[in-house]
Amino acid sequence: MTNLSALKCAALSLALIAAGAPLTVLPLAAQQGVPIASDTMLTGSLNDAPRPHAQAVRATGRIQVDGLLDEATWDEAFVIDRFVQLRPSPGAPVSERTEVRILYDDENLYVGAELYDSNPSGIVRSPLQRDNSTAQGATFAISLDTFLDGRNGAVFFFNAGGVIRDAQTAEDGRVRNVAWNSAANVKTRVHDRGWTVELLIPWTSLRFDGSREEQIWGMHLFRRIRRKNEEAMWAPVDRGWTTYNVSRAGTLGGLDGIRPGRNLSVKPYVVSSRSAGFLRPDTESDFEGGADIKYGITSGVTLDLSLNTDFSQVEADRPQVNLTRFSLFFPEQREFFLENQSLFQFGDRGSSGASERDFTLFHSRRIGLSPARAPLPILGGGRISGTAGPLRVGLLNMQSRSEGDVAAENFAVARVRGELHPNLTVGAMVVNRTTTTGANADNRSYGVDADFTALNDYLLVRSYLASTEGTESDGTSVERSFASRLSVSWEDPLWDISAMYRKIDEDFSPGAGFVRRRGIWHAYTKVGIRPQVFWGVVEELSPSFETHHFTALGGDLETREMGGGLRVGLRDGSNASFNFTDRFERVHEAFSVGGATVPAGEHNFREGSVSYGSSGGRAFSLRMNVGGGGFYNGNRLTIGGSALARLGGDRAVIDISADNNRIDLPGQQAVNAAVYTASAKYFFSTSLLTTALVQFDEAAQELVTDLRLNWVHAPLSDVYLVLTERRDTEARHVLERLLTLKVTRLFQF
Question: Which residues contact 122 (CB under 8 A, 6 or more apart)?
Fold first, then answer.
């Protein structure tokens, strides 16, 4: 019954895809049109407006990247000055003069942007930390679709302080890899006319087909004027589309006679550490080294090798309050696994009722970390990833070492995705986890998935079919079990409608993945609308209604959630939301929440919440939420919030947050499940910063302190000094203390 049901779900998915296969969108080249006048107000769908074109010009002299566009060769460049608002007035010209110029030579691409501002003192700056979100400050961005396929690209964001946030995008923005780092060099200057960006991107940081004598690339240009809550693009797009959606980009030509480099880099490291604490009764000192190697096999495929992989510089996990009977999902934070992570995603991606926090076939946190999230030594491994013709391919193999009672293990992953049709993307994944010491045990996972888009990409159909099997350490075979999903969503500038149906067998167990709930049928629906209004300070209203319906495989109702919400967006960037949910939960076995025990039985209860978040573009921003109502057979009150202060412009950031839940269950003493976090960051410059993080988990009575100094002594080369401590506040002793010094250096060839 279970296998047949999964196959039916997959067959229905393929039938829907086949039914829509004739639908297409115009190729990017066919969408080019007449340039838009700088003072033209566009109406209707901005996605349908002509795509603009620009020419890069070969530099006639040396360019010094200093934030001053004072070299004579900049005067020879093509001037891009027609930008169209996304918000607050879609289709209107940008309110502040914006000029972008693009030059190149045999080694680099150069971008110069003059971002004029009638009130320079009001330019909002965001923190001086690489890869930090630029959403809360003045921003300039460029994306480059170097193969002009309308699917893949490199995206670069910059704030007024000269900080870069770079990323890779695939599948037209649905897949984003913000862990990717380039060797781009940028300088910015704030002056009495606004601010200036001068950018150098080495050809070695980009993947493109060097056999073409003339390159024509897709290009997006973006500007955010944060003090006005204004966003503008060079290539007009509707709300909901961003610089990651390269299918809506303009084009850049004139790049003649350029060639990619050898794309070989070596990044060795040395690390010295000293540990102590109750869990480490013998004080230990350690010194070791390793290296990461990156090589561009082709213009689109990269080989990464790692020897004696080390993650001592990674921050500790943020504690989470768990008010359910299911496991928590902790995201990956380690740089080696974050790079190209999106390629290895399989499962409940995105939204539409379920995300990777519900099911993912491969979760890299299972490598080198124990079930209790303690680090395990990794011998090393390798990864091949990238784009080969119409396919995106990924191969990963990592080997961990044994430690104590934990056996050494090997993890192998193979992933492929490609377009069978301009609107149809299909993929497959195989994952194997096996012990290499001690008793033999293995787990194998397989899966196929498909995404279908149509009607200006507003319609998205997603599906997958996955299975697992394996062998226990005692030789017992684990029978094959299945998981499957079919979802359909429609998301345009006004409507957000989706439906999903998925099934997960009771014994479905991906050994290198994550599953929140097993043995269920899950049905989900959502209807939402997002009209843009102009009611005084109100800019957008987003009412929505959602339902979740979980049943056991035998048909008994397990969980039902029905709720509505309203989000109100304000013109200054702040927002408020109101939510109400009616719930039913069938609990088969009593479980503990923060010291209180939820009894077995059937529970009907209702809960509501109100939240408000002020504009993040201000020096001081605040988010507050209050919720409560029923909680199984009792009551719950939730009070939480955070406060963020930026001091000295972009030099210092203080962030304090709290999430407190008071739970009252009949016949039991009221308990509090709370997490408190405080962090402070000070940026001496874009290359030297220090951070302090303190976290307290009231339920676990555990205090975590993380202090670190990071010096970027050369491009993508760091010195880390880190002190991490875990303290049991109830027993009043240090569980673990680790002092680490790590030095890395990038060499490019």
Answer: 227
In sign, the C-alpha dihedral spanning 134, 174, 147, 305 is positive
| Region of 288 on the Ramachandran plot (φ > 0 left; ψ -120 to 50 alpha; else beta) | beta
DSSP state of 107: S
Q: What is the largest CA-CA distance in the chain?
A: 82
Per the domain annotation, does 468 fall within a domain?
A: no
d(CA 414, CA 132): 31
- Per-residue confidence band for 205, with pLDDT thresholds at 50, 70 and 90: confident
Write the CATH number for 121: 2.60.40.1190
Query: Residue 145 domain-assigned?
Result: yes
Burial (CB count within 10 angstroms: exposed 0-12, middle 13-18, buried 19+), residue 181: middle
| Residue 399 one-letter amino acid | Q
d(CA 546, CA 565): 9
Instruction: Tell me how many domains the chain contains.
Output: 1
pLDDT tens profile 173-198:
888 888 788 889 999 999 999 999 99
**Distance separating alpha carbons of residues 220 and 178, to the nearest angstrom:** 17
In the three-class reduction of DSSP (H, G, I as helix; E, B as strand; rest coil), residue 179 is classed as coil
Which residue in 77, 447, 464 sits closest to 254, CA to CA? 77
* Calculated CA dihedral for residues 621, 627, 632, 633, nearest 10 degrees: 140
pLDDT digits (tens, 9 = 90+) for 557-579: 999 999 999 999 988 889 999 99
Query: DSSP per residue over 66-97, as a string?
Result: SS---SGGGGGSPPB---EEEESSTTSBPSS-
Q: Is residue 136 part of a domain?
A: yes
**What is the distance between the alpha carbons of residues 246 and 250, in angstroms, rounded to a whole number?**
9
DSSP string for 585-619: EEESS-EEETTEEEPSEEEEEEEEEEEEE--TTSS
Structural element, H or E, at residue 8:
helix 2-20
For residue 378, what is the DSSP state? E
Dihedral sign, Cα of residue 62, residue 260, residue 221, residue 716: negative
H helix or E strand, kind and range, residue 15: helix 2-20
Q: Which residues pair with 414 in a beta bridge?
A: 395, 430
Task: Answer yes or no: are the C-beta atoms of 28 and 48 closer than 8 Å.
Answer: no
Full residue range of the structural domain in which residue 143 is found: 32-256
Q: Which amino acid is at 387?
A: T
197 within a domain of the structure (yes/no): yes
Instruction: Residue 555: count other Cβ atoms within 10 Å of its Cβ.
Output: 7
Q: How far apart are CA 93 and CA 38, in angstroms?
A: 7
